[in-house]
Amino acid sequence: MANNTPDNLRYAKTHEWVRVDGDEVTVGISDYAQESLGDVVFVELPSVGRTLAMGEAFGVVESVKAASDVYAPVSGEVTAINEALLDAPETLNSDPYGEGWMLKLRPSDLAGEQEKLLDAAAYSQHVEDEASKH
């Protein structure tokens, strides 16, 4: 399975990615996640200012096939959401690591939690293991 898994990101086993930008992190769903979902038709995002715990569901991505919760890969306060996704949810399919970002967080314990996230190689292995179970 040839998935696009950028090396500069960290990944959660629930298929969200994290990019550290100074004192904020940007969060989205992986290429594998968008491919598994199929054509995304609706995205629900949290409100700015909401505090999320690592692993807490923060929104929903609906595709023509299924609806899937998305989870906070790290704890923190939501500082921005990608409003463009509300009008163009298909951006998650076309550019999951760029224009398809979902939210920005001000992390509360990045140093501690980042170690629980996977690097690109470990995430790719996780995806392969998961795919082989289906």
Give an overview of the whole structure.
The chain has helices at residues 31-37, 84-87, 91-94, 110-114, 120-133, and strands spanning 10-11, 16-21, 24-29, 40-44, 51-52, 57-63, 67-71, 76-81, 103-107. By secondary structure, it is of the alpha+beta class. It has a single domain (10-127), classed as RNA polymerase II/Efflux pump adaptor protein, barrel-sandwich hybrid domain (OB fold (Dihydrolipoamide Acetyltransferase, E2P)), CATH 2.40.50. A hairpin with a 2-residue loop joins strand 2 (16-21) and strand 3 (24-29). 37% of the residues are buried.
List keywords for this structure.
single chain, 134 residues, alpha+beta, three-stranded antiparallel sheet
* Global shape: globular
The residue fraction in helices comes out at 25-40%
Mean pLDDT: 95
Q: Quick one: CATH class?
A: Mainly Beta
Q: How many whole angstroms does the radius of gyration measure? A: 14 Å
Query: Looking at the chains present, what oligomeric state does this protein adopt?
Result: single chain
What's the CATH architecture name? Beta Barrel
Determine the N-to-C terminus distance.
13 Å
Largest sheet: 6 strands, antiparallel
Please give the count of helices.
5
Strand content bin:
25-35%
According to CATH, the fold-level topology is OB fold (Dihydrolipoamide Acetyltransferase, E2P)
Order of secondary-structure elements = EEEHEEEEEHHEHH
